[in-house]
Amino acid sequence: MKEIEFTWPKGFYADGLHSGLRKKKLDLGWLCSQVPASAAGVYTTNQFCAAPTALTKQTIEQGHQLQALVVNSAVANSFTGAQGEVDAQTEQELVAAKLGISPKLVGVASTGVIGEFLPMAKLKAGINALKLTANHKITEAILTTDTHPKTISFEFEQAGQKCVMTGFCKGSGMIHPKMATMLGFVVTDAKVDGKLLQELLSDQVATSFNQITVDGDTSTNDMVVTMANGLAVADSESLTKDSQDYQEFKQVFQAVLEYLAKEIARDGEGASKLVEVLVKGAASKRDANVAAKAVVGSNLVKAALFGQDVNWGRIISALGQTDVSIAVTKLDLAINQVAILKASQKQAYDEEGLQASLGQDQILIEVDLHTGQACGRAWGCDLTYKYVQINASYRS
Amino acid sequence: MKEIEFTWPKGFYADGLHSGLRKKKLDLGWLCSQVPASAAGVYTTNQFCAAPTALTKQTIEQGHQLQALVVNSAVANSFTGAQGEVDAQTEQELVAAKLGISPKLVGVASTGVIGEFLPMAKLKAGINALKLTANHKITEAILTTDTHPKTISFEFEQAGQKCVMTGFCKGSGMIHPKMATMLGFVVTDAKVDGKLLQELLSDQVATSFNQITVDGDTSTNDMVVTMANGLAVADSESLTKDSQDYQEFKQVFQAVLEYLAKEIARDGEGASKLVEVLVKGAASKRDANVAAKAVVGSNLVKAALFGQDVNWGRIISALGQTDVSIAVTKLDLAINQVAILKASQKQAYDEEGLQASLGQDQILIEVDLHTGQACGRAWGCDLTYKYVQINASYRS
């Protein structure tokens, strides 16, 4: 596998445009495959699951196939009741009619303000104007408070043929995924069965998207959807679990999901730096993940990192308030590879040097709990004035 | 019962001074009873329970009696290992020796930065200089980022005698109590058995201190301690559960705890307003409390309230991400008594008027879940630039 310049896999077409939902920015896009693709998805666990999210879940679960996805920003079509459901279905039907395919092959995603209805006349005109192109405008059209598109492409092999896997996503606030998150899309021209794809996605989301947090709030519209159309290896069999190719596919998939998840954390609302927490020596994988996410999710830790303050007591406090098994007298803690604690004893370190290193745009916090062998990581960002500014006036 | 000007109950003496732990502000205080008092406490559930908190818990659990409490700010004596334990015991012994009482009657509390040792020479000199006075300096000496002391006194009757109950507390950041919180002290000259006092405190903390949040972080030093010396009713029996006086005592106790809890939320770091969330129609008391705390704890809701933005979708999202039983199509929501949703339908309301009302220093959010009869409340504050400022430079 190797990373390549962003590109659509074989047989995938996309487009994005300004349909009038936002003032000026692109706000509508689609992504289409030449043929029906194997598909899998993971979705928000928020009880108020939005209409498009629920519809896409239902659509994918029917046959684990999709041929097109339509996505808008600005209006989330969330908490919009029966009208919201009708609107999402209408989007699905409009796209299906335009492409001459079954509505059961069309996914729908929305992101933006909760509680407002989609302006359907604008959306209808927008869908009408979408084309089957190779441009990357959809990666812009799905953004809200994000500062830039988040995209990645890898090249790898299946059955000796070159395949491409491409992922893109949006998300900057209301980020604290429980089973899936915000909007993430991964497409490939490799050939893999829909149910296997689902198994892989569900598994890998747990250690990528589910391990990031910006503000502790789980959105109503979260979804990650993946499509594999097999066009790069048209004459070959689908991947099977015991094959060498499957191992590479899995590696590529994990790299794409982890890259996208980290990009969301790095671009968290108002963030000035990416924070990675690595927990080692945990009693279980679950413990390691919970501990890592607790540290990266603490407002106090985040504000201290913004202020370049080596206030490591807040890391201790964040760990201690979890139910994770901790050897309280054996803890190791390092920040940017400087040892702060060994066996719970404070080490001598160059405070000024460490403080300066907290000015970098990436921070690494390492914790060893000394209660087992499991590891886990989580990603987040610092808490800045800008986060407050963005969220005190989100709708203006 | 009636609220009176802040005063110490009969037989309680206190003092506060500057011992040099902070630059200029008062940083050390004590509170003493003329005779041993019944005592009860609740303590942090953070796994890294600080040395003074653990020692006070152990001391109170031995006999449910205390005669004195010594408290310092600036240094939390938390995550300080064996040395921290020795230091807390030394404080206990110094106070006991000075008062000529058993160390087993002395509670110790600390608040401030985690991971630093207490400067014992300064503390020793400070304890030496403390006097048995009627001043209120201890209510100042325990503060950290608080903007003002939080105090209250009530007068009530037991056995026909006038009694006083007085409470004070500190706390502004790292506020997300799980079983107890920050430092809270309630003293009375009523007569009540220590175990009954403990039962009452544990019960009432659940709906007062445990229902506030400033930033989702549970401190390592939280404790609420209460002492009843019985001196107002020296010749009477202790309160019994079936008496009329007990009902009044309970009412006063609850009023004091709730007042102090709300004062902490109102004075949350950087806060410009107090936010109260009232959840009705819940399937259980637990559900009501969890739902109320989820709304008041959401960074997104808090930032919107700071910005006077009626972004009610964030309230929905915060509710939906809990495991609380919700009738998703029947939800009622009101903000400052303006109906926003009825049966999950958006109501017509005066947006500008409501927006203006969010400029007040107190916000009320009411939710009816329509799944049962239980109610719960929670208190918090808005998220402001000042919160970030305070926590980006806490130690400077």
UniProtKB/TrEMBL annotation, chains A, B:
Gene Ontology terms describing biological process: L-arginine biosynthetic process; ornithine biosynthetic process
Site location (Involved in the stabilization of negative charge on the oxyanion by the formation of the oxyanion hole): 111-112
Keyword Amino-acid biosynthesis listed: yes
UniProt subcellular location: Cytoplasm
Biochemical pathway: Amino-acid biosynthesis; L-arginine biosynthesis; L-ornithine and N-acetyl-L-glutamate from L-glutamate and N(2)-acetyl-L-ornithine (cyclic): step 1/1; Amino-acid biosynthesis; L-arginine biosynthesis; N(2)-acetyl-L-ornithine from L-glutamate: step 1/4
Keywords: Acyltransferase, Amino-acid biosynthesis, Arginine biosynthesis, Autocatalytic cleavage, Cytoplasm, Multifunctional enzyme, Transferase
Main location: cytoplasm
UniProt EC number: 2.3.1.35, 2.3.1.1
Positions marked as site (Cleavage): 180-181
Domain of life of the source: Bacteria
GO CC terms, sorted: cytoplasm
GO molecular function annotations of the record: L-glutamate N-acetyltransferase activity; L-glutamate N-acetyltransferase activity, acting on acetyl-L-ornithine as donor
Any Pfam family hit: ArgJ
Catalytic reaction annotation: L-glutamate + acetyl-CoA = N-acetyl-L-glutamate + CoA + H(+); N(2)-acetyl-L-ornithine + L-glutamate = N-acetyl-L-glutamate + L-ornithine
Positions of substrate binding: 144, 170, 181, 269, 391, 396
UniProt family annotation: Belongs to the ArgJ family.
Subunit text: Heterotetramer of two alpha and two beta chains.
Annotated protein name in UniProt: Arginine biosynthesis bifunctional protein ArgJ
Naturally occurring in which organism (per UniProt): Ligilactobacillus agilis DSM 20509
